[in-house]
Amino acid sequence: MRVRGDAPVLWRTTGQTQIGVEPGRSLVLTGLTTAEQQLLDHLPRRMSPDDVYRASRRCRVPLPRAQDLLERLRAEGVLRGGDSRPTTPEEQYWERLVRSPRSRATRLRAKRVALFGSGPLAHELAALLAEAGLGAILPEDEAVGAQIVARFPGTDTGAPLDTIPDLTLTLEPHVIDPLRARALSQAGARHLPVTLREVSVRVGPLFEPDRPVCHDCLDLWETDTDACWPAIATQARLLPEPVLERLLLHQCAALAVRAALDCLGDAPDRWRAASTELSADEPLGVARRWSPHPRCLCSQTARASRASRTAPAPRAMGAARGAGTSRPSRTAPREAEHPAADVDIVVGAAPATPRAPARSAAADPRTPGA
Prior knowledge:
- The protein is of the alpha+beta class.
- The protein is built from twelve helices and 13 strands.
- A seven-stranded mixed beta sheet has the order 7-6-8-9-10-11-12, with helices on both faces. Strands 2-3-4-13 form a four-stranded antiparallel beta sheet, covered by helices on one side.
- The protein is elongated.
- The model is unreliable at 313-341 and 353-370 (pLDDT under 50).
């Protein structure tokens, strides 16, 4: 056995022990005796049954009581089997957040991400995606592909022609290319745009087939704010990529890769209808929520689809009212009963760090749907 994430065991006060340091994410045990606190302090981070026996004798805690405490910690996910030790820094970090970091790593190894774009940001994105453990990165730029082959030989850079990647990242100057966005949508590909503008870089929102919001929604909201936006956007598509600060590019690369990992399963809903804009004067980012535009076909299609799903299904001629419609109810599973003990385990009981109110873009005249 071992402590999950190599978390330290800390003394809070008499009768209270904390496992982990970070406020809001640690686990607190209360109602402990002094001997039981010493037992937890003396347990090694990786322990065998013999270690538990020796520690219980040293601290004068009955062995059944020591085993009960460890069983409670195992039930809370604090203790893990010794054969599941993380082998990479990513696994060790994610062990503190998810039940099975190895399953997450296996999931990422099975993913393919297409990358459209070139230049320093494309090279950095490809390297960070490979470091994150993705199984295949399909770059548009041959130079980016050569870099992946040279630095990350275990990462594939090719796939069959009819392959639809799990996610497509596009790097585009000033505005999203509507032709490419439409082609990706028609192909059934999930699309995460990274738009490099004069002062800021916008990551997101995630475009998914048959799900609003789409790229046309963004243009329609911009047009509602500025009637000349279609003319400006048309000219912007012909402009070269703006020169941006290197530090900003590094920051945006990290955010874009984090967004890609979220879309691939870490937090699938986080980037739906949401984007973040980074710049030198907004280093913490401006988060925006996008609504489907009422004049966009994607929102009209979504409304029609919802209406068809909620419409009552026709009943067969002569069928008895209610026949065939009843389903057996499911009983919620009973919670496992823990043996009675005088120790209370409180997850995250350590006071969380106070947070400032979230930034809101509602006051910005260019906020979509305002």
